[in-house]
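Exercise: predict the fold of this chain.
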Amino acid sequence: MSAPIIELRHVSKRFGPQHDLAARLARNVATRFGRPTPNETVRAVDDVSFAIAKGEVVGLVGESGCGKSTVGRMVAGIMPTTEGQVLFEGQDVNTLSAEKTRAAKLKIQMIFQDPYASLNPRLRVEEIVGEAPSVHGMVPRGQFGSYVDAQLRRAGLDPAFKRRYPHQFSGGQRQRIGIARALAVQPEFLVCDEAVAALDVSIQAQILNLFMDLRQELGLTYLFISHDLGVVEHLSDRVLIMYLGRIVEAAPTEEVFLRPNHPYTQALLAEVPRIEARKRRFTAIKGEIPSPLNPPSGCHFHPRCPHAMPRCSVEVPAFKEVAAGHRSACHLND
């Protein structure tokens, strides 16, 4: 496997209110008199580390609210980290010069979940797709039209529609416009955040096939974020399982689906509908995902885990190798 194109080292992200002086004084007084103040800090991502090799497709899977979209936004440079490092081609993006930062951000693009909200309704398709390459001087003025046409064809759209507005397209067509916009700046790495979740099943298949074709044609690398294990199984080389801000399991795709190690991964796979098991009853994971305002101590999954032991509530499990290329964070492995 080649050197990582993207690497996260102990990355965390917290969200909290920015208190003014009066609010800080009020909190200090309340604390002094023994009055508890509510925790207002959301721990969206908690000490996440992983690397993605050039040309690889990595699936990031977890329930809604686990922090996977936040990870994607930090990888894409849309959101800064609170702690830790994001490295692009071995260099910390926060230490790059302005010119290198600009180049790195062009090479990492993001495709968003909602094709209705991610496109500016006031711009025509040719402006949406061509704006960034034009601003960054990637296309001569005289070649603007032909360049936009080429990006639209690559994404499976007819260039004859480039003068239309986003509201004149279907959901699948809008997602193709988002893909064309991302490809227009000639990226090397795409973050796909639930890129097919809002589409009909038949359209999902078309977009997934498009992603695979583009991977072969352009040598792209993907971080594919999804809650749909079926989609991830079809598309990914390797899978990362995320729960409440932490990576709890990482392994090649076939290994995850044949030999899941972490109880959370096992529970997710048990809920996947299968034709051969169409008559069986599905049992949901008990309980609800805890609030990131006040995550459980120790292993975050222990309140919902059927195998929880006393140490699970006090000790964070080590994320260690349980087989070749297969890592998991569970005390059952000790």
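Check your answer against the key: The two ends are 29 Å apart (CA to CA).
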